[in-house]
Specification:
Elements: H1 21-48, H2 54-79, H3 82-90, H4 94-106
């Protein structure tokens, strides 16, 4: 394996260490899709549920809407795909959007 220029700091342009960029982007896209779907579903169920199970639904919504983009960004960063990591971090704004929309819809 040739890691020349990746961490040597010898002034050369660093080489890309992503061997399978399509696989990395597919993984990040799958995590993003799960974030976009599970976050609002968990939060909406938490708002609609009784006080006994609301905490579990809010935890699912928060874990999906914040944890999955951070996991995707970490995977993409380790793989050397900065663009996929950036797109994954942009998803951290998604909870603000769906929480506002759910509260406007339910009137709470």
């Amino acid at each position: 394996m040739d890691n020349e220029g990746s961490a040597a700091g010898n002034g050369d342009k660093p080489t890309r260490n992503t061997r399978h960029p399509t696989g990395i982007r597919l993984t990040v896209a799958l995590l993003a899709a799960m974030c976009v779907l599970l976050g609002p579903v968990g939060y909406a169920k938490g708002v609609a549920s009784e006080s006994n199970s609301a905490a579990e639904w809010f935890t699912l919504g928060f874990g999906a809407s914040v944890g999955l983009p951070l996991l995707g960004a970490a995977i993409a960063t380790v793989a050397g795909d900065r663009r996929a990591a950036l797109y994954s971090l942009v998803l951290l704004a998604w909870p603000v959007v769906f929480v506002t929309a759910i509260h406007m819809h339910t009137g709470s």
